[in-house]
Amino acid sequence: MPELPEVETVMRGMRLHLEGHKIATATPLREGLRWPFPPGLADSLRGRVIMRFERRGKYILIHLDDGQALLMHLGMSGRVVLGHDVSVPAARHEHLLIVTEQGARCGLVDPRRFGIVDLLAADTATSHPLLARMGPEPLGNGFDAEGLARAARGRRTSVKALLLDQRVVAGLGNIYVSEALFRAGVHPERMAGSLNDAECTALVASIRDVLTEAIAAGGSSLRDYVKPDGELGYFQHAWRVYGRAGQGCPDCPGPPACGGVERIVQGGRSSFFCPRRQETATVAQDLS
């Protein structure tokens, strides 16, 4: 599933391609994705000017000149295809096609159809059911060590599960949590309530660094994800532990000198860590 850096990359590509454009046509090519498209979507978007773009967690908000906003989520396999040739036929699995009067083409492709498209009043976005309970943005001022420490206090779940909880911090996913935990030297199975202030400070800094570097690299291209211009992101080449089971990390040589990066399964998802850098202590009972 595309995570925050990938969604940010998609949003920035859409902003460069579409901001300020007037929508000539919006054509649903299927009935919907995870849920049906909003009734009258084509008529609601036709003639509207795209004013600005906003990302909230893993969601994209496209603000229109009539006070509405188009809400998008890429799901597990969704991607946005941008171009300037409006005569290009719809791609396989393309579900929504937007063409602007300035000659831009924007198609939403989603083979697995787990994505989401909704239309809402922009001033009610914070109360939308999909956004209302989301925590602070990890790159914003609302996310800090004090807030993370409060969220972790007394929690008997793992620190990995805590950071994946969108109510604690918005937009983090499996890849970047694994990478941030490695940089902070925190084992993914650590009980969240056992984190001290210094570890919370290190985690916040590591999360910010990992996300900033990943956005600069255009995200991680894994399976379906490509950037809106069709190019691959390349942060996967900078992974220090994710997907590297049995290999060395930047701090350890790997076999035969040591066992290398280890892989465990938490909540049905793979976690990767270095057992030398990320020592286990106070393991969460729900994942022990």
Mean pLDDT: 90
Distance between the termini: 26 Å
Following the backbone from N to C, one meets helices and strands in this order, namely HEHEEEEEEEHHHHEE
The helix count comes to 6
Secondary structure tally: strands: 10
* Outline: elongated
Task: Indicate the proportion of strand residues.
Answer: 15-25%
Largest sheet: 4 strands, antiparallel
SSE arrangement:
Layout: H1 4-18, E1 23-28, H2 41-45, E2 50-56, E3 59-64, E4 68-73, E5 79-83, E6 94-100, E7 105-109, E8 116-121, H3 145-152, H4 159-164, H5 174-184, H6 197-216, E9 262-266, E10 269-273
Antiparallel strand pairs: 1-6, 2-3, 3-4, 4-8, 5-7, 6-7, 9-10
Helix pairs in contact: 1-6, 3-6, 5-6
Keywords:
four-stranded antiparallel beta sheet; alpha+beta; 10 strands; 288 residues; single chain
What report would you give on this structure?
Strands 1-6-7-5 form a 4-stranded antiparallel beta sheet. Strands 2-3-4-8 form a 4-stranded antiparallel beta sheet, covered by helices on one side. The protein is elongated and about 60 Å long. With 288 residues, it is α+β, with helices and mostly antiparallel strands. The protein is built from 6 helices and 10 strands.
